[in-house]
């Protein structure tokens, strides 16, 4: 298995607080996005149809992390004509790298962005997504504790 090393460029200053910015190779960032998609519960992933997730270096705004483009599933009908193409979620690499304080933080904010945009795909408003994110964040320590408490099988 090929693993690309995360490259930290000391000359790259961040827009966020003057810190040094993480810079990843595109394949390394793609792998983070793939892990974020895999972290979406199966009951939701199974319902994600005609959806493409693409990674781009930058978006239309320097602070935009992601963008959902399409018609939410809650607004679709069987009587609707076939769409011309798939819905699209765009994830923007540079703003994530600019915001991240560490590689672990980068993984977390990419995961949060993917969840956020998938929420729009399922028809949730900004307010509903933020409420769901707050519930998820409140439960996150309990889920982590439950994972740590599981016995590891003997090998």
Q: How would you portray this structure in words?
A:
The two termini are 22 Å apart. With 155 residues, the chain is of the alpha+beta class. Helices cover 43% and strands 17% of the residues. It has a single domain, classed as 2-Layer Sandwich (Zincin-like). Helix 1 packs across helix 4 and helix 4 crosses helix 5. The N terminus is likely disordered. Strands 3-5-4 form a 3-stranded mixed beta sheet.
Helix and strand topology:
Blueprint (H helix, E strand, L loop, with lengths): L6 E7 L6 E4 L2 H13 L3 H4 L5 E6 L9 E4 L17 E6 H7 L3 H19 L4 H24 L6
Helix pairs in contact: 1-4, 4-5
Briefly, what is this?
This protein has 155 residues and is an alpha+beta fold. Helix content is 43%, strand content 17%. It has a single domain, classed as 2-Layer Sandwich (Zincin-like).
List the keywords.
single chain; 155 residues; three-stranded mixed beta sheet; two-stranded antiparallel ribbon; 43% helix; 17% strand; disordered N terminus
Oligomer: single chain
Q: Major sheet, described briefly?
A: 3 strands, mixed
Share in helix: 40-55%
Contiguous helical run count: 5
Which value, in Å, is the CA radius of gyration?
18 Å
